[in-house]
Model the fold of this input.
Amino acid sequence: MKVVLNKPELVLALHQQLLSIKAGCNEYDRGNQEVIQSIAGDITSLFHNSNQSKSLLSQLKLNHLQFFCSSETYDSKSLINFIGLLKLKHQPGKGWTYVAELDHSVLKKVSPDNWWDNKKVIIGSDGVAFTRSKIIQSAARGVLPELDTSGWKLKDKTGNKVNINPIPEAVRQIAFELLASFENIDISKESRLHYKP
Done:
C-alpha cells in the first residue's frame, strides 16, 4: 500500500536526508570510502523520479530552487579529458590524485535541471559524458560508472603509474554542492506544496 505523506512529514523527510548526507560526508572525510553508496542513495531519493515514485523535491514542489554548482565549464574543443568537479593535487603519502575542493567561493547558481541532468561534469578519454545524475544513480546502485581512464594514469607515491577513479571524490563534491544549496533555505516556506493543517 502506498503511503502518502503530508507537507510537514515531507519537510521532515528532506531534513533527515540532508542530515544523513552530511553524516555520510563526515564519515567519508575520515577515510571511510564505503559510505559513497549511501551518500549517493540519499541524493538519488531527493532528485530521481520514476514510474513508481516521485522524488522528495518533486513531492514538495521545490523544482524552482536554484542549486550551487562548482564545476568548470566543458570546452568541447579541448582534446584532453574533463573532470569539471575536481582538482588534481599532489598529496604527501598518496601521490597525485583528484580531490573535491569543497570551496564555497567558486559556487554559482544554476537551475535544478542543469545541475542534475544536463551539465556535463566528467568527460572520459573516449568522449563519454557524465552528468551528476548518471554518476549519483550509478554509485547508489553500488556500481561506479565505467570510465575510460586511459588519460588519467598518474604516478602514485612510489612512482608507479596508476589509474585514478574520480567517482568517489565527485560524489563528495556533489554532496558538498547540495548541502550548500540548502544551507539557508527554509524548506517549508520555499515549498509550493499546498497544505491545510
Notes: The mean pLDDT is 87. The first strand starts at residue 67 and ends at 69.
